[in-house]
Amino acid sequence: MSIEMDKVKIGVIGLGRLGMVHTEHLVTLISDAEVIAVCAVDKEQLMFAEENFGVTTYDDYKKMIDEAPIDAVVIVAPTGFHPEMTEYALNAGKHVFCEKPLGLEMPEVEDMATQINAHSDLVFQLGFMRRFDASYRHAKEIIDANGIGDIIYIRAYGIDPISGMESFTKFATDNDSGGIFVDMCIHDIDLIRWYTGMDPVETWAVGNDIAAPQLKAIGEFETGVATLRFENNMVATLIGGRHAAHGNQVEMEIMGSNGWIRIAQEPEKDFVTLFTNAGVVRPSMQSFSERFEEAFITELKDFIVNVKTNCQSDISVDDGIKALKIAKACKVSAETGDVVKIELS
């Protein structure tokens, strides 16, 4: 089904940090989109959206999907709700952009995938936005051109600023985040699969709460480290955490037989360096939304184009399922201390 219109009419579900970012981008920066309605359970968030974006507000996502004159939904709700919201939207004839991960429980995710595949006339796109970041895309081009030879080892960091610990603790107390590997490292898992064209066969992982002991009471690791082994013995290390004092630290190093690639070694905010009696200071980015702003905009533009041209996303539901299974295997390994075989079939 193609959309014969100038603008794709959007309903957004979820107005937390990222939901508000997506909504603002859709309203202010993406000319082919028009946000008609938003849905959230927080009344203050709804009031803000109504006053600042001029949209109709709902506290029931089903009512929004049934009543609002929309073509597509952008789902930015807590992960556990992704499967039911996606299925409801697809059955209502709406295209779906869904933030990662697909969900938390594999039976629900597999049912979700069945519904996505059954609605091949509708676009489904998963929010692995790092594939749209210019630096990661450049690295992909170098790898595909055999610019560093065969990949030997990959190291990936994803560390949130410690300033966000209070808000994360509140979120994870009220919602199941999926844990550090599902919630954070899944982006790097997707990139590693994208770069290598391979899937890992086993993992060994550990986690701790040294930097945030309060997380232990809600079953969360503050820091998680996982080693992934591939069939050809290539190795990848994933490091996820929430304790960076300086800002948002996201980086990746790809070691090849003929060269290395290092992406975002330092989270530099801009080109300003301050020289004072306190020393030399370089401002750092303070949030993932700041670091990946262009990627978030580009992925939403891609979704709108896909809806208008009736083209499926390059990121498949199978990519989402495999990344989730790998992340969950890392979680099991960290919880048990065992090496875990990764079963993707």
TrEMBL record:
Domain Gfo/Idh/MocA-like oxidoreductase N-terminal, first and last residues per copy: 8-123
GO biological process: NADPH regeneration
InterPro entries: Gfo/Idh/MocA-like_OxRdtase_N, GFO_IDH_MocA-like_dom, NAD(P)-bd_dom_sf
GO molecular function annotations of the record: nucleotide binding; oxidoreductase activity
Xref: Gene3D superfamilies: Dihydrodipicolinate Reductase, domain 2 (3.30.360.10), NAD(P)-binding Rossmann-like Domain (3.40.50.720)
Recorded GO CC terms: cytoplasm
Keywords of the record: Oxidoreductase
Keyword Oxidoreductase (UniProt): yes
One Pfam family per UniProt: GFO_IDH_MocA_C3
Family (UniProt): Belongs to the Gfo/Idh/MocA family.
Protein name in UniProt: Gfo/Idh/MocA family oxidoreductase
Organism name: Vagococcus intermedius
